[in-house]
Every structure is written in structure tokens, then in C-alpha cells.
Design goal:
Blueprint: H1 37-40, E1 56-57, H2 64-72, H3 115-118, H4 120-124, E2 133-140, H5 143-150, E3 167-174, E4 178-179, H6 180-187, H7 191-201, H8 208-211, E5 217-219, E6 225-230, E7 243-249, H9 252-255, H10 264-280, E8 284-290, H11 293-296, H12 299-311, H13 321-329, H14 342-346, E9 351-355, H15 360-368, E10 372-376, H16 389-397, H17 409-414
Parallel strand pairs: 1-5, 7-8, 7-9, 9-10
Antiparallel strand pairs: 2-3, 3-6, 4-5, 6-8
Helix pairs in contact: 6-7, 12-13
The protein binds zinc ion.
Zinc ion binds at residues 251, 254, 262, 264.
């Protein structure tokens, strides 16, 4: 490869560090919450042409670091442009009224799935605009759903549920795109405080947070969301159509590996069963899955807490459930459901008829964002693993929804989980 005059080699990292903390006039300012894509303008967070950038951070959430690794290792040209041929969404979502409200959606780009369409001119003009949302179709095959078919609770209809027991879904992957003024408003802090703390607590990872007040959009290096839709996605926005929905936070141990200390997978698969049944009744089902492992504390903290719970004097009791998390993490929970309803507004949802969640924090965030919630569907007792009784008793005593009795202090002391064996 031939070096350029400045010593850089095309496709390889530049030998010079290019600081991005000095303002340059972006090709497009992002007019967050504008009613149309043309007025809003594209979010440009790619690195191929730094003069085009109008956002802080880059694409793919935490995977942006792997992209950097690929460039550093010489496996990926930093000038690579995505070929978006045939990548268009299988189902067009929106636009909905909420997309034009700068307060309704602050943590994702509502136009993120449509960039190849709505910003076709800018793309043809050489601007490197990447989708932050992708929508596709799949069949999902879960042993719990096959069992529901075998036991007669669900019946394949060839539409929502095929004969193999696989559910037909539309699914969307969503990267985080934060509008910093809106995120600050959600958390009741000033934008400057939010920017400064994000800068400091990531070890100074994004200097533009504090030097570039003109850049209001930040693509944070965190996990995103995936939504699974059962039935016609367009029905989600129709409040007259029965919507069964669960908002689920990632729990790798239970969701994927079947760990029995919590209720995550049983509740997830129960929600999927409810979503399928609802879609078969003519409604629509939705599971919105957020990458917020271990209450967004991460799996290392989560496993430390498990040990602390199970080794404490008196064993793993429900009355100490939250205290042990707080001892290790400093807080009980970092999921902060304030941003969660954004995905529901992206889908145009105004009413959830059946919310498959017992969490008061999720319920409060959803209803507080203006979405009406009808019935709340609890996790049936028979689906709670024995060792997870500690968690569910602690949570219902702390305000989680339950149609049954709320455990008192004596019961919380007597709900004891397995020890470390
Ligand atoms: Zn779990």
C-alpha cells in the first residue's frame, strides 16, 4: 500500500491522533424530534469521513470496540462502506406521531431503520449513513412453546404458530442513539452534568461530551434492544387491537443457560406463550428485550452478589435479597426504566392491554410515558423455580405486582434459597 503525504496508509489507522474536540460545521445538524426525516436530518456517526460526523460515539454499541480492534489488526479497512443492497426492513415501522415529539423518544433514532430510503439522496452524495435499526423475520423454536403445544395450551394455526411449534416473528435490532438534552430531562439532571459525568465515569472516553455542546446526539458504547413481534407489526399502533407485551431485561444465566436462581427465562417463555395466544385471538404480541444484564450491573457484579447472598449468616433469605446487591453494587438496580418506553413509542404503541410483567418500575415508566396499561399478567406460581422463591418474595414485598398475598417480614425471613452447591 502507498502511504499518503501525511504518512497515513489507506484502510489502516492513521499514525496521527485526530482529536475531535474542536468544532467543525457538520454537513447536517440533527434537528431531533422534527416531524419528517428531511427536517430531522441523518445521524452520521461513522468514522470514514470525520467532517460529516454530527454525533458523538459510533455505531454498534459496545461492539464499536471490536470494530476498532478489527481496524487495528488490519482486518478491516476503516474506509469500508456498508453495501445496503437488499437490507431493507421486512416490515415498515411508522412513522408515528411520537416520532415528531422530541420528548417521546430520546434513546433511539426513530428513522434508524429507514435511512437507506429516507436519506437516499445523502447516501448517493457520498455520506456514510448507517442504519441503527434493522427489521427482519424469523421462526423461533422454544422447548417451552413445543411443550405448550403438546399439552394443548397452544394450537398451531400455520400463521402465528407453525406445525413444528415454531412461532413466526418479525424482529428488530435497535442500537442506542441518545439525544443528550432529552436523556438529561428524563433523569431530571442538567445536560451539562450528564455530559460531564458520562465523560468522567467512562474514564474520559468521549472528550466531545464536554467540548462539543453543538453535538447533541451520542451513540453510547452499551447494549441495545431487540423486539420480537408476534402477529402483524402494524397492529401494535392500533389501540383497538389487543396487545400483549413484555419488556424483558437480559439475564444470560437464566434466559440462555437455564440457571434457576431467578425467574427470567420462565417469565420470558410464559410471555411468549401469552403473545402467541394473543396474536391467535386476532391481537398482536410484543417482547422488547433490553441488554441490561444483571439489572445493568453486569454479570461479574451479579455473580458476586450470588455468592454474598448464599454465604451470609442465615443463608439466602428473601429479607436480605436487596441488601446484598446494595452491599456489592452500591445500588439495588441500575436499569433505570426511564428510557425503556422509547421503543414502545417507536412502534406507535398507545395502549398495552395485557402487560406480562410484575415490575412496578416498568409499569410506572410505561404509564408515566403516556401509554395506557390494562391488565397485568403475573408469572404463574408453578413456573417459579424453587431457588427463585427468594427473589420473587423479595420483589413482591418491595412493590412488584402480585394478585396473591404480599409476604410479610416473617415470611421474608423464612424464604431461604439453596446454599452454594
Ligand atoms: Zn435472571
Amino acid at each position: 500500500m502507498t502511504a499518503r503525504a501525511d504518512g497515513s496508509v489507506p484502510g489502516r489507522p492513521s499514525p496521527h491522533i485526530r482529536l475531535t474536540s474542536h468544532p467543525v460545521t457538520a454537513v447536517h445538524a440533527v434537528n431531533w424530534g422534527a416531524a419528517t426525516a428531511a427536517e430531522r436530518g441523518p445521524v452520521i456517526a461513522t468514522t470514514s469521513n470525520r467532517l460529516h460526523r454530527n454525533a458523538i460515539g459510533t455505531h454498534s454499541g459496545s461492539y464499536s470496540v471490536y470494530r476498532a480492534l478489527a481496524v487495528a489488526a488490519g482486518a478491516l479497512s476503516r474506509e469500508h462502506r456498508a453495501d445496503l443492497t437488499n437490507t431493507a426492513p421486512t416490515d415498515v415501522v411508522g412513522p408515528y406521531a411520537q416520532w415528531g415529539d422530541p420528548q417521546a423518544i430520546v434513546s433511539l433514532d426513530p428513522w434508524g431503520a429507514a435511512v437507506a430510503d429516507v436519506f437516499a439522496t445523502e447516501l448517493a452524495d457520498g455520506q456514510d449513513i448507517r442504519p441503527t435499526i434493522a427489521v427482519t423475520k424469523a421462526h423461533v423454536l422454544l422447548p417451552e412453546i413445543i411443550e405448550a403445544v403438546q399439552k394443548g395450551r397452544l394450537r398451531p394455526d400455520g400463521r402465528v404458530l407453525v406445525d413444528s411449534g415454531a412461532a413466526v416473528v418479525t424482529k428488530a435490532a435497535i442500537e442506542p442513539v441518545w439525544h443528550l438534552p432529552g436523556v438529561a430531562a428524563r433523569f431530571g439532571c442538567s445536560e451539562s452534568d450528564l455530559r460531564r459525568v458520562l465523560f468522567e465515569e467512562t474514564g474520559g472516553m468521549y472528550p466531545e461530551l464536554v467540548t462539543r455542546g453543538d453535538l447533541e446526539v451520542f451513540l453510547p458504547p452499551i447494549g441495545g434492544q431487540t423486539v420480537y413481534i408476534f402477529g402483524d407489526p402494524h397492529k401494535l399502533a392500533d389501540p383497538a387491537v389487543e396487545l400483549t407485551a413484555r419488556v424483558h431485561d437480559e439475564c444470560n444465566g437464566s434466559d440462555v443457560f437455564g440457571s434457576d436462581i431467578c425467574t427470567c427465562r420462565p417469565y420470558l417463555t410464559h410471555a411468549i406463550e401469552e403473545c402467541i395466544a394473543g396474536a391467535q385471538r386476532g391481537g398482536v404480541g410484543l417482547v422488547a428485550y433490553s441488554r441490561k444484564e444483571g439489572r445493568a450491573l453486569g454479570e461479574v457484579t451479579k455473580f458476586l452478589v450470588y455468592n454474598a447472598r448464599k454465604r451470609q449468616v442465615g443463608g439466602d433469605t428473601a429479607d436480605q435479597y436487596f441488601a446484598r446487591t446494595e452491599c456489592v453494587a452500591g445500588v439495588q438496580d441500575m436499569r433505570f426504566q426511564e428510557l425503556m418506553p422509547d421503543v414502545l413509542h417507536w412502534l406507535g404503541i398507545t395502549k398495552i392491554h395485557r402487560l406480562v410483567s410484575m415490575s412496578n418500575m416498568k409499569y410506572d415508566a410505561i404509564t408515566g410515558s403516556g401509554i395506557e396499561v390494562g391488565e397485568r399478567v403475573n408469572l404463574p406460581d408453578e413456573l417459579i423455580p424453587a431457588d427463585a422463591r427468594v427473589e420473587i418474595d423479595a420483589k413482591t414485598a418491595a412493590g412488584y405486582f402480585t394478585p396473591g398475598p404480599i409476604p410479610d417480614a416473617d415470611q421474608l425471613r423464612s424464604t431461604v434459597g439453596r446454599d452454594l452447591r
